[in-house]
Structures are given as structure tokens and as C-alpha cells.
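[agent] plan:
  1. take the single chain provided in the ticket
  2. run structure prediction with default settings
  3. attach C-alpha cells to the ticket
  4. add a short note for the reviewer (M.T.)
[agent] executing step 1
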Amino acid sequence: MKNYIGVKIVKAEPQEKDGRPGYKVVYPDGYVSWSPKDVFEKAYRILDCEDFINKKA
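[agent] step 2 finished; step 3 output follows
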């Protein structure tokens, strides 16, 4: 098998679900999901720059 790496920019904010800490995640196509805090924080870092998702072409 080969190794692959993927990069995506998402919008997120802290949100509890069933009493568990996590993040509400919004993808560029508008899809909304929830991720447990530890899983999310292992995969994502804060990007402090231009808003790529809401930018108009």
C-alpha cells in the first residue's frame, strides 16, 4: 500500500454532544458534522489568515 496525505480547510467551533466535548465542523460545501475533541485536535490546527471558505471568487 502507498502513503497519502490530504489537506482541507474547515470552519469549526467548540460544541458538546451528549455531554462530550467536541467540535461542530462545517466543510466548504456546507456539510456539517461533529468530531470528538481529541480526534479533531489531532487532525486540525487553527489557521489565522484569509477566509478561504467564504471568499467570493
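[agent] step 4 note for reviewer: The two ends are 38 Å apart (CA to CA).
[agent] ticket updated
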